[in-house]
Amino acid sequence: MGNVKIRTMDRINRFLSFVALVLFGVTLMAQNSYNVGDVIVFPDGSKGVVCHVDAKNNKKGWAVALNDLSGKYPLWNGTTPTGLTSAGVSNVNLNLSSWNSVGKGNTKALIESGRCPAAQEIDIFNGWYIPDIVQLKQIQSLVPFIKSTIESLGGDISHFFEYQHNYWSSSYSSSSYMFMLSMGSSVHYGGTCSTASGTTAYYIRLIRNFGDEAEAYWMD
To answer: Mean per-residue pLDDT for 179-189?
Structure first.
């Protein structure tokens, strides 16, 4: 009987040690801080590369998806959806100081219109959305820095530095027009911001927030 008790206690102690290690690991994950260029794995298993970290909280920011949506898509079919918020920025001097974070709300409005051809590829319920124009410009400016990381994860970002490839943002301009980014040459990694009708088909690259936001979009 004595040996049985010892073996039982030994199993209990090993189990408690295992639980302690798991809890320690969870705590470390909860305390993660990030830098631009880091790889982040979200709770649903999807991955992204960090493109922005909050200046006041390095556990909070947003990351770009490893690949474009398959093919090119217009943002909507037919008339312009309601509920789109104006970008509040001009075509020049786009930087994070002018960022008003309209991306998630406008992506939601596009999907809820029922006329967004890309809707089936946008996992908005887990937090992925179409970047606004300031975020899109930020991604484009980081291509030389994040390209090798994305490729090492099996992703591709080549269209961001190939001449005359266009990407949609989720920033509303006016009437039926949305902001988009036209890529420059592969030598200069240039990108020109302009507007186009939302019924035109361009590439789309999703992003996702991390940090203190709710994981499920409808709870955010």
So the answer is: 67
**Residue 129: which H helix or E strand, with range?**
strand 128-129
183 touches 190 (CB < 8 A): yes
The answer to whether 181 and 173 have CB atoms below 8 angstroms apart is no
Phi, psi of 144 (to 5 degrees): -60, -30
Provide Rg for the chain, Cα atoms: 21
The whole-number pLDDT of residue 47 equals 97
Strands across the sheet containing 191-197: 166-174, 177-183, 191-197
Query: Cα(27)–Cα(24) distance, rounded to whole angstroms?
Result: 5
Helix (H, G, I), strand (E, B) or coil at 166: strand
The structure tokens listed for 111 are 């999907």
Residues in the chain, how many? 220
Q: Are 65 and 217 in contact (CB under 8 A)?
A: no
Q: Sign of the C-alpha dihedral, residues 160, 155, 148, 99?
A: positive
124 has a pLDDT exceeding 60: yes
Span 139-178, pLDDT tens digits: 998 999 999 999 999 999 988 877 678 999 999 988 899 9
pLDDT at 89 over 80: no
